Amino acid sequence: PHCQGPSGTTFSAPRLYSFDVWSTRVYVRDSLAALFPDRKKEIHELVDPGEYGLENYYCRAACCFIFVMGLMDDLHKSLGLAILLWNVPSDNSKWVRYEVPDWAAKEHAKRVHSWCELDLVKFGVAGMPVGWKIANLIFIFVPKMLIWWILGHLGMHFLMETAGIVDSIMNSMALTFVINLDEMIFQVLTTLPVKHIMDNLEEYALFQLEDEERETDDDILARFMHTELGKQKWKRFVSLLLPKRLVTVVFLWSFFVWNYYRLNCETKPDGSSVSKPLRLPTVVRFNPLSFFTDNYQAEHDPYWTMP
Fold first, then answer.
1. In angstroms, rounded to a whole number, what is the distance separating the alpha carbons of residues 297 and 290?
2. DSSP letters for 83-146
3. Which of 150, 146, 149, 160 lies closest to 264 in space, CA to CA?
4. Could you tell me what percent of the chain has a pLDDT over 70?
């Protein structure tokens, strides 16, 4: 209530339109005023273009939250790649090995399990030389994080600029589809050998359980009393109970919304936020660095300011 739209009038439900409808109605009113300049005042009094504004704030917030949830899986995988590059040994180990079962003859094991020779070929993450680590960091991890940031920044801006309820829902689903484009490209364009290797690639173990397997019952009970019932029990309980991904999603959602208002709005003396003056760009060429520097080349005089 008591909010003003881009035309400078107060919002009301019967006068609320989408941007396309509102801009068309404004164009018709201004065209009539240009054709009949002697009746301009009367035209502005009788021809009401309405206002352009948000249909439902909570629906848009929910759609933005869903979009950020879609970003989380890609962020988690990218950070997992960085953790893997950090923990994997820096040696030239083999990622492919041929394993013959030691519990029986090879031909007998193949008949029992219906194996073929390809089933005895194992693929697993092993050592990686430092040069390959740097190459993966520069050409895979850094571009993935840049794409993630640009998609999150532009996607949130796109959703925040969407006023309609149905449009907000559809756009949030469309942006989630864009996030999964890399997986679709992998499924469609990669060869069968590559798919076989990736499907059968064994995970790299970041920790070992041999020491725990050799512990006695008394050692296990003592460790349990120290870790689970000791001074840090409430800290461990909260760390296990707290949904870390939910906290991360809420933080990223709040950050992207705050960043949108920081870049596109200014605060009036009464505490309300309105759009900054809009200026036409002088260069329409795509510049990736502008996403990080917020340095856009635009005309000095704005073509629209809040009335």
1. 9
2. HHHHHS-SS---SEEE---SSS-HHHHHHHHT--GGGGEEEE-----HHHHHHHIIIIIHHHHH
3. 160
4. 95
Between 225 and 178, name the one with better pLDDT. 178
User: What band does 256 get if pLDDT is binned at 50, 70 and 90?
Assistant: very high
Strand partners, 123: 96, 201
Residue 161 has pLDDT above 60, yes or no: yes
* Cα–Cα distance measured from residue 249 to residue 64, given in angstroms and rounded to the nearest whole number: 11
Confidence band of 285 (pLDDT split at 50, 70, 90): confident
Give CA–CA dist 232/26, Å, rounded: 65
Cα(123)–Cα(97) distance, integer angstroms: 7
Which two three-digit tokens encode residue 247? 């906290």
Residue with tokens 């090995």: 97
**Paired strand residues for 97:** 122
